[in-house]
Amino acid sequence: MLEPTPKLSSKKCKLISLLIRVFLQFGIYIIALLVWYLQDYFMAIASLIAAYLVMGIIRSKVRNSVIPPKQREHQYSDKEIADWYVAREFCFEPSKKELEVL
Question: What angle do CA 21, 24, 25 make, to 5 degrees?
Fold first, then answer.
């Protein structure tokens, strides 16, 4: 059975998820613009390519660390990856089943 993407309830969890999502989506462009401002555009293009590769590795590590193994074959957006990560790492709320086991 597939678990649905967790719904975040508190504003703190939603804010953390939004920050992670923005980092995953726009981090490469921010890095490239920063390098372009500090260096030149040739270095910015090289950093854009390097940041694209590094961000892909970070995205896949985060995705594989929080999404259940049976669901890893499905495609997830950056928002869904951020929601899973925040729900599992920061805003963990045990379900009634898990509380009964304890």
Answer: 85
